[in-house]
Amino acid sequence: MKHLKLFLFTLIAGFGLTINAQTADEIIETYLENIGGAESWNKLDGIKLSVKINQGGMEIPAEIVRLKEGKQMVVIDIQGQKVKQNVFDGEVLWNTNMMTQKAEKGTQEAAENMKLEKANFPDPFLNYKDKGYSIELMGKEEIDGTNTFKIKLTKSPMLVDGKKEDNISYYFFDTENFVPIAMQNEIKSGPMKGKMSQITFSDYQEVDGLYFAFSMTQGLKDQPGFSMSVDGVELNPDVDVKAFEYPEDEASEEPKDKN
Amino acid sequence: MKKITIQLVFFLCLVAFSVQAQDDSKINGEAIFGDLTARHIGPALMSGRINDMETHPTNPRIIYAGTAGGGVWKSNDTGTTFNPIFDDYCQSIGAVAVDPNNPDKVIWVGTGETWTRNSVSIGDGLYKSEDGGANWKKYGFEKSERIANIIVNPKNSNEVYVAVLGALWGDSEERGIYKTTDAGATWSKILYTDERTGCADLAMDPSNPNILYASMWEFRRTGWSFESGGNKSALYKSTDGGITWNKIHNGFPEGQLGRLAIAVAPSNPNVLYTVIEAEKDERKGLYRSDDAGESWVQLNNDFGLTVRPFYFSRITIDPKDENVIIKGGLTGSISRDGGKTFKPLGNMHSDIHDVVFDINDSDRIYAGTDGGVYRSWNGGTTMEIVENLPLSQFYHISVDNDEPYNVYGGLQDNGSWYGPSRSTGGINARDWNSIGGGDGFRVLRHPTKNIIYSESQGAGNVWRYDVDNELIKTIQPLPMKGHAKLRFNWNAPMAISKHQPDRFYMGSQFLHKSEDMGNTWEIISPDLTTNNPEKQQQEASGGLSMDNSGAENHTTIFTIVESPFDENIIWVGTDDGNIQITKDGGENWTNTSLDIPGLPKHTWVYHIEASVHDKATAYAVFDGHTMNDMTPYVYRTTDFGKTWTSITTSEITGFARNIQEDYVNPNLLFLGTEFGLYITLDGGKSWSKFTNNVPSVAIHFIDLQKRTNDLVLGTHGRGVIIIDDISPLREISPEVISKKVHFFESKPTVMVDQSGFSGNFGAETQFVGRNPSRVAQIKYLLKKRHTFGKMTMEIQDMDGNKVSTLSPGKSKGINIVNWNYRIKQPKIAKGKTTTGAVSPRAPAGTYKVVLTKGKETYEHSIELVYDANAGLTDGDRADKQDVTMKLYDMTQELAYIVYQIDAILENTGTDNKLGKKMLALKETLVITTGDNYVGSAEPQLRELMTQVFAKIAYSYDSPSPNEMDNLSIIEERFSKAKKDFEKLKSKAKTKSMELQSFEDFLND
What we know:
The complex is a heterodimer. The longest helix of chain A has 19 residues, at 2-20. The model of chain A is unreliable at 1-20 and 251-259 (pLDDT under 50). Helix content of chain A is 19%, strand content 46%. Chain A is built from five helices and 13 strands. Residues 1-23 of chain B have low confidence and may be disordered. The interface between A and B is large, with 58 and 72 residues.
């Protein structure tokens, strides 16, 4: 009987602890622990994801590369053509124009904001204080029918139409397993400005001791979006840094059109 | 070991207990609704009532609109477009205030509209956002009902004044002026008169935050009267931050006062304006003080300044010129001579409630009206409407059975309309059709003919519109010999019959019946109301300003329904609390509501829903808010009204107006309240708020479209909101929710052949309503969200061959996965450019859905059917399928050839005879130069093949002779190319190359 009481006490105490005593830092600590441990994540130099973007049954294969020093690119496979989008070499941001198939630079503002993203690698919450980020537990919220902790992540201010603005994301950590199942961002510019975008995460799987969400859905909050499933994750991939460089001389290499 | 066992047993018991505790017949909907999400279809073309406009003190691009029933909207582009920022909270807004010390971050919102017409919504307190509107926190004032102003000290964010107008329908002590000095943590009431008098307007001297001006207003509304004014109405001034207040009436009219407005000129704080509602007409109107309220001079009592003070009482002064002032009103009035003379503002929707000037350029003006927000670029001379504010305020909606079905409804001050539930490119402004003027209320479509009934206020007009022949006739029942004067409600009830298509009912105090669509009327009841003469004194209504618009007509019938089982059973509900039933077509009537447990007497019967499941069953929704009773009252009878049982629970917030019964599952009910939509899955034992894109908006009417199972909400502030296909909710039971995965049954999906052109030029800044999904939807319930491990979904044919891969939803509750009923795209030959990718549709038939979750697999089947509207025979369909798949295979074959050529070329190079020939062949197969736009090269085999492939696969029709002819040319060319390739290939040393097999190539 004594044991029973003790057991009950522990159970209630334990329960009480998880319900009440979570701080933002504890949640993040547990999260990092659950996805492989901060130490292992700190060792990462780069990630290459092989993904399929799926919209209602149409699949587009793509590769996403992100490196520690901020370089990144998305390579979409369209009918065997590898088309690079959202490429950043640390200074220059560029995309491929789908009409001319030639590289075009993004705005300087977008490039400046991309530089800030460097600190997000491999996970914005890893060493977040060193990055100058701050976190705040906003409370609990139900997402996907599931109880979550809503954590506000404030990163370094970003440029919006020439002005510095707060760079805030909301992450929703499942209260059971402490991994984020959704992330929301206020759209900062363009006609959608002011609306919330949302990404949901699922299918967490282990890759060499680290956990990654193998499935993501992205769109406007409360509206259908598109999905992305991950086929493979390569840690510390071997990537030629030239692949990120803006192809300055591409135009001159093009043969003149016969027409 | 023993101890462990005991512990284990105990733990299991505990678990079992907690499971048991949840596992009675109550079902929590919030965890079930999942992907079931609403879509908004507007309309926005007539928009809706605006209560308060607000600018940003330093950024002219930012404008806020606080709306009467549709929440807070923010513009980031100087009023070109707006986005909602307050959807999760009460949508009735009294005041929006930006903290001038921190204007990008801190926004205060006071809920509850303040232009106190009969149909106003209520508020539920004060809110603040500290991050520009992304997150909100409540700061009390739950019972304030209406907040008129919020002013933040421009030098101290912690100091905030809140003017509470307070309850409209009854006594309340939560009124007057409140002040916080700790940013909202604590509040003190600094000016209070009595429980009938609230603060209608508050202003601060821009040069001295300790100087405040407050107008207190004595007012009261009932269901049958309105009273503005009394001895307590007054204008006060404080010079010590609200500690002491003095009346400033020097020069004011004698006698009682009504609603007063107050404004301080930003350019000269000694100049004040007030608009006064007084006893004598000649003493009403605009007054000015040039000595900060010491004395007042009357300047003008034009109609534009004195009209309906309870509805229009806002003065706006040009921030740069104290002699330019605008007064809200029927048209809005502007003076450029310090208030001596006025002219109307430019043409716009009538009833202007608030106006703001741009912070830098006074030529730019924003006006909030009964019909949305208007902008002016020339000082108010011409006005243009903001086109993306879907704030329409429906009193009632109904649907027809067309394809797509139409939604009909009447709007506050915006007539009556109908529009489609789906349209090419989304539901646009131009898709809506006007079907009545004035204030619109009930609109019903004739059950079998293309005839629409609509009405304006008080059944002043009831229109019968023959849509096909464009013929309009007014058919309202007129006074008849031997009967008393007719009393119609402002929102007069009409009803049609399920049994006799031409039958049409209307209710005054009597029930009127017509068997010929309103040409002839007979009265088939005695006075069914209480006929209380005290509630029939509308000509004395208004207080200091008479206001007999008909909006207060009372002791009238409000809702009528004929039983779906028996045309002789008719239920009638009255605004003074009677539920009358006849079982013999009107010969005899019984009042069933004389003694309903828990229901205050004379509570307004807002809606009666006669059950489609049982003749003796009906639901009644009572609305007590006009008696200052905000409790939701919903009752069910199963014995023709002999007894009524409440089916509400404490889970419901806000008084209720309408209930909709599901046609299939009698336990599934939908309830519209002042604060949103509630759903019960267990016959009313428990209710859950539905929030997936349904804001906390007042829902006045709900309909359920029978063919589509779409739940259609008529909201009073956010237009029409539709939840497509609620049928999954019918299957929810304790058994179903305990399953790990449960697939919902669905009707066969029609692969739609119909399409159209959307040509939307010039509509960039317009609101466009979202269309429903028309693709195949796989719907299932997950007991728990899937977060760890792989979960995938495939469509297979019945032999297990993969047809398509889908991304399954992972939510706890209902998941909806879309499949565009197309098979995987064929592999396409690689060229220099890309070509159109053709994904043919899957043929009609049954398909397997295979859901793999971890190690477990769940299967379900869905059915696709062809669109009968296309008029194709089975033979046509088979032809189309054969030719399409032939082209599909050809496309992949060509892709494989090009792959092989590329592989060979890579191996041998082009600097030899074989290489040159291979390259020459390739250049005839795919484009090898140019780009995807105007630099495009001459099309080759791949492009020609794709062209005819797309033409055939994307046509509704079977292949035409012309197309077949074209195909044969391509086939010939392809067959020659294949031969040429084989010849060349035989010369290449392919054995030493690692060429993929055709199958591997396709799966790569």
